[in-house]
Amino acid sequence: MDLCHVPATREKGWYLALMAPNVKGPNYAWLDPSRLYCHPQGLQDCVADLLQPFRGDAIDVVAGIDAMGFILGAAAAATLRKGFLAIRKAGHLCVQTAAQPYTDYSGREKVMEVRTDAIAPGLRVLLVDQWVETGGTMRAAIELVERLGGVVAGVAAICIENSEGGKWIQERYKCSHCVPSRLQPRFDQHQ
């Protein structure tokens, strides 16, 4: 699909066909959504689908998770007319931070940080990332928000896999993703 083509019928998830498979090996995610972000209608429809379940919900700020969650998170914040908070990998913020260790989808141990002055008790935060594979990264972001007294208003990602971590998140928080249920098994199996 070229970057200008828009299908006549746009069902939820039509833009998933814009994503490209991994050609660089096991240190990378199995599918790359960055081409989807280059498609103007694809990006708009993806963000609209992610936000649809949260229409009418109280959301004070949108937080995007380093780094690809910044793209969807900033787009969601602009659409909702809310502020955007970057939740970063350790070492990138030059202000007072709270930190949370986690294991990412590749099994690497990392640390996530958020500025401590951005989340006040009761602040309702919509957490956005590109993908939730094992759930480790999103769970670290959840723990940071809640430790600072914030409330997780929801979790949104292009895909939330039915992994142990993905299920843990979906059982506890309002979630939104773009993968139609008929395609979910293929995404869970990385096909």
From TrEMBL:
Pathway: Purine metabolism; AMP biosynthesis via salvage pathway; AMP from adenine: step 1/1. Its EC number is 2.4.2.7. GO terms for molecular function: adenine phosphoribosyltransferase activity. Keywords: Cytoplasm, Glycosyltransferase, Purine salvage, Transferase. Gene3D superfamilies: 3.40.50.2020. Residues 57-178 form the Phosphoribosyltransferase domain. The gene is Apt1. This is adenine phosphoribosyltransferase. GO terms for cellular component: cytoplasm. It catalyses: AMP + diphosphate = 5-phospho-alpha-D-ribose 1-diphosphate + adenine. GO terms for biological process: purine ribonucleoside salvage. InterPro entries: Adenine_PRTase, PRTase-like, PRTase_dom. Belongs to the purine/pyrimidine phosphoribosyltransferase family.
